[in-house]
Amino acid sequence: MLTAFLLTAFKLFLMTLLPRSFFSRSPDAVARELLGKVLVSCIRGQRLAGRIVEVEAYFGKDDPAAHSAAGKTARNAVLFGPPGHAYVYFIYGMHSCVNVSCEPEGQAGCVLIRALEPLSGLDTMARLRGLSPAKPKMLASGPGRLCQALAITRATHNGLDLTDPASDLQIQDDGFRPEKITATPRIGIRKAVENPHRFVIHGNTFVSKAP
After folding, report:
1. For residue 59, is pLDDT > 70?
2. In the chain, where are the structural domains located?
3. What is the pTM of this model?
4. All residues at 6 or more sequence positions from 165 whose CB lies less than 8 Å from its CB, including other chains
5. What proportions of the chain, in percent to the nearest 5, are helix, strand and coil?
6. Which residues contact 73 (CB under 8 A, 6 or more apart)?
């Protein structure tokens, strides 16, 4: 148990920050390669981290399910670039969801981060979620849950540059690569429901809904 903990801590220490060029591509390409990367939130000096195990790709005006489908507004301006910035929105009057902007500046696109496998700061995540640390699967298996677990809100994080080393919200690479990725239709939308733009790490038990 201690060996596994030390190995995880060592990997977190060696992580590298994803550059802006990583995100300046089609959302589906970015989404696939985000699987296995680590989302890190810094709260008062503490690092909360989880491996990205489930994502959804959203495109521009040709994607009726995307927030950018109707064009640029004050609410969705982050989606139009530059790439590598956090787009956080509030739904159902109770949940925050975090996305990362994709595509070159001026062209809308993003990836919604839907689930994490918690890696560090589990006690703090559990406290923020009002749960027992003994139930790690419930901490971040869903877009609203993971934002609550990492204390991500629109007021604090929307527009943050995830490629900035000084940012309180980052996506980093510890060298992990999924053996298999499964594509499915996106969840919780009413338009373009047939498009297989949801991607999960095959067999991972921390996804929000098994394929």
Report:
1. yes
2. 21-166+181-201
3. 0.92
4. 17
5. 25, 30, 45
6. none
